[in-house]
Amino acid sequence: MSNYNQTEKRELKGPSLTIKWAFASSFFIFVVFTIFAVITYKSSINLIVAKERANVEHTISEAASRLSNSDEELTLINAYRNLTNADQTGGTGDDTAVIEGNLMKIDSFISELGQASMDLYVYDLDEKLIFKTHEKSRSLIQTTRKIPTIVTLDGKTGFLSIQPIYSKQTREKIGYTQTFYELSSFYDIRNNLLLTLIVLEIVSLILSSILGFFLSSYFLKPLKVLRDTMDTIRKDPQSDIHMPEIDTDDELADLAEIFNEMLDRMRLYIEQQEQFVEDVSHELRTPVAIIEGHLSLLNRWGKMIPKF
């Protein structure tokens, strides 16, 4: 049983150094990529939110600036004219029909309000809705100024901004404008970005694990060869095995060279001991043979002496 234990291959008590190095490298890459992904995600989200907020601020400021050109309380007609810079027309009834039929035939500023996610509302002093860019109506939330703020209205989340309108001529309040910009597209972008980063992180973890394993196997191969060489010597001390030369010119190459020098020195000591034992046994063989011959002769002579 003891001989079997001496010749069997020694197993590692724990994970190999290759596995440990592969795990450490993949974990390090995973942490670095996670930090990079979080920074990228936060920066992108903040940048998009800031851009959307700036767009809402620009829209309501432009609308308030145009509406303030009126010198009387806002109505459907003067609100439309000021927003679109339309020319004066003849009759009020005809103007109303034209306005209701051509709300979308407006300049580039108002065309931006044609987006499905952008709603612009104009109210008179009685908080009555007199103009809207889409079919959905919405009551005025408050009469004081409100900077673009993310709120949830009717189950939809977006930027809400409110601006009282003051006439540039009379300096009197003539109405209110309210803008709601739905952030559904923003949340779609955010979810897609998050999903993309998660997929990339999983892929990077898998690739880093595979790459770390192959790199660790390549760089730690001399250590494995050294271990196998030592295990072979342990099982057969008389074997003439050596550590192969390593052309890496690093610590492992020095270790292999030192190990081979130790092996040569140990084998020299073993050969010297064997030679010494052989010489001693040869020197002792002749005296022992002489003594054995004398004892054998005495034994024969003793049998020939008569007994009295």
TrEMBL record:
Documented EC number(s): 2.7.13.3
Top-level EC class: transferase
Recorded topology in the membrane: Multi-pass membrane protein
PROSITE patterns tied to this protein: HAMP (PS50885)
Keywords noted in UniProt: Kinase, Membrane, Phosphoprotein, Transferase, Transmembrane, Transmembrane helix
Entry GO terms, CC: membrane
The HAMP domain, residue ranges: 217-271
Parts of the chain that traverse the membrane: 21-41, 193-220
Primary localization: membrane
Reactions it catalyzes: ATP + protein L-histidine = ADP + protein N-phospho-L-histidine
GO MF terms held by the record: phosphorelay sensor kinase activity
Compartments, as annotated in UniProt: Membrane
Protein name: histidine kinase
Biological source species: Enterococcus mundtii
